[in-house]
Design a protein that fits this description.
Layout: E1 2-9, H1 11-17, H2 21-34, E2 39-46, H3 56-66, E3 72-75, H4 78-81, H5 85-97, E4 101-104, H6 113-146, E5 159-162, E6 167-170, H7 172-187, H8 191-201, H9 214-221, E7 229-232, E8 235-238, H10 245-264, E9 276-278, E10 286-292, E11 295-301, E12 319-321, H11 322-338, H12 340-350, H13 354-383, H14 391-420, H15 424-438, H16 447-457, E13 458-465, E14 477-483, H17 499-502
Parallel strand pairs: 1-2, 1-3, 3-4, 9-13
Antiparallel strand pairs: 5-6, 7-8, 10-11, 11-12, 13-14
Helix pairs in contact: 5-6, 7-10, 8-9, 11-12, 13-14
């Protein structure tokens, strides 16, 4: 008979109960031999919480079971398998389906209704104890913070933190950088992006050795930790200050003033923002009101001039007059409204095959499952106390959340494309009704109504070259307008206008 022994121990178990891997291995091996095992495989997880199923040793054991390499599994007690009742039951069921005999040393496991009940109760108690421990840890951290202590890892630029002594001290090199950031910002007219650019020009590295981004600089400028007040939940903990209160207040006033001035500036509307891309460099194009060849006007540019940008766009800088591109797109929209059937034909011709959509959907589903698994692993590790909810872990959870949201959005788009193409012809009829209502006054629509109409019918706009349409040589540009399959044009989400609003 082929047997496997599984042992697990966490640091907490060793401290509180005296468990050790060697002791568990010896005891489990003797029991396996007593039950007639001739071959014994060992699977172990050391220093790993039982709150998660994502454990190397446990995963290897499950793979061996799926491969039919094992007839018997011997474990010290159910808690070694998992501290969560749901996980205990899942593993037990998985082993049973594979025809595996499960043997516990310190627990009278019987495959009977009574035995299952007792097993479930024991697991529930273990999970309850774990939650109580977590609750005590949270209350302990809060109390520690109220007394002025550091309850979690303190990893802030400008400071050094010793987890053994729990002391926070200034990092002399980084704290000097922080002082420069505040002084440059409040005393020079260079702004946040200018501060980031100067740090990069001086080859000052971030803590991770990367280049400075304007958002990182702004986070430093608005963080009250640098005047000696670090916030943990709703508790303010005193730490060494790097700048004085007067410097801090001047920086906050300048940030508020910049926001006020920006809010008061005349804003220019850009019809294609969010859907226009440079075909030459692949960067999105944004609307800017800029001086170019002694003429100030609305333009679209793929240039990314802010510090920390991963791509800089075309070089030399590309600046396309907005009115040329917008007129071309708007004229195409009007042509489609005159002949909605042509829009449908154009949209179908630009669409990939349905098989490609289905393959992408399968890939998206797989990625979503991986993201959720990663999120659960982080949360389980937090709940078990393996590490603290510091800035790094918060960032990890935020990244997972953003990735999940992007994947879910793409999943919705794919499902719409797969399920909604059959009704596209019917929506063309809706579009014809709308066209009859607005074609005679289409150029009189409000900007928001035009923008909504463009987004309802145009998937993307690609621009290559420089200059203006119809030019020659270097002055020539090419505009590609990708049609979108007609959607319900009066849907609140896709088009924020209606026939009633247009006729008001």
């Amino acid at each position: 008979m082929r047997a496997a022994i599984y042992v697990r121990v966490s640091t907490e178990d060793q401290a509180r109960h005296g468990y050790s891997l060697a002791e568990q291995k010896e005891a489990c091996r003797l029991r396996a031999q007593k039950l007639g095992a001739t071959t014994i495989l060992e699977f172990a997880d050391e220093g790993v919480s039982g709150a998660s199923l994502d454990r190397p040793g446990l995963q290897e054991l499950r793979e061996a079971i799926r491969a039919g390499q094992i007839n018997l599994v011997v474990v010290r007690d159910p808690d070694r398998l998992s501290r969560k009742l749901s996980h205990q039951l899942l593993l037990t069921e998985e082993f049973e389906k594979a025809g595996i005999n499960l043997e516990f040393l310190d627990f009278d496991w019987k495959d009977t209704p009574e035995g299952r009940l007792f097993y479930s109760i024991r697991g529930a108690i273990a999970e309850y104890e774990r939650e109580k421990i977590r609750d005590r840890m949270v209350r302990g951290k809060n109390q520690k913070a109220k007394l002025g202590g550091i309850p979690i890892g303190f990893y802030v630029y400008g400071y050094n933190y010793n987890p053994e002594t729990e002391q926070v001290k200034l990092n002399e090199d980084e704290s000097e950088v922080v002082r420069n950031i505040f002084n440059w910002f409040i005393n020079e007219d260079i702004g946040v992006n200018g501060v980031a650019r100067r740090l990069n020009e001086k080859a000052v590295p971030t803590r991770k050795g990367k280049k400075w981004h304007k958002q990182v600089v702004k986070q430093i400028l608005v963080n009250p930790v640098y005047v000696g007040s670090w916030k943990y939940k709703d508790i303010h903990i005193t730490v060494p200050s790097i700048i004085d209160d007067a410097t801090w207040l001047r920086a906050q006033d300048k940030i508020k003033e910049a926001r006020r001035l920006w809010a008061g500036k005349g804003k220019h509307d850009y019809l294609l923002s969010g859907i226009i891309t440079c075909a030459d460099c692949g960067c999105t194009m944004t609307g800017i009101y800029a001086l170019w060849w002694r003429k100030r006007a609305r333009r679209y540019s793929c240039h990314k001039g802010y510090q920390g940008a991963k791509q800089t766009g075309c070089l030399p800088r590309k600046m396309i007059l907005a009115e040329y591109v917008e007129d071309a797109v708007w004229n195409q929209v009007k042509e489609w409204l005159k002949d909605p059937d042509a829009l449908l034909s154009e949209a179908y011709s630009s669409m990939p095959q349905m098989d490609e959509y289905r393959k992408e959907l399968v890939r998206i589903e797989k990625l979503l499952a991986e993201v959720e698994k990663g999120r659960e692993s982080v949360l389980d590790a937090l709940a078990s106390g393996l590490f603290e909810l510091d800035a790094k872990i918060k960032g990890k959870l935020a990244d997972l959340k953003r990735r999940r949201e992007r994947l879910e959005q793409r999943r919705k788009e794919l499902l719409f494309l797969l399920n909604g193409t059959a009704g596209a012809e019917a929506r063309v009829d809706e579009l014809k009704i709308l066209a009859n209502e607005i074609l005679d006054r289409i150029d009189e629509l409000e900007f928001d109504e035009k923008k909504a109409l463009v987004r309802a019918l145009v998937a993307s706009v690609l621009v290559s070259g420089r200059g203006r349409p119809g030019g020659r040589g270097l002055d020539k540009i090419s505009i590609t307008i990708v049609a979108r399959l007609p959607e319900p044009v009066n849907a609140e989400k896709e088009a924020q206008f209606s026939i009633m609003e247009i006729n008001r």
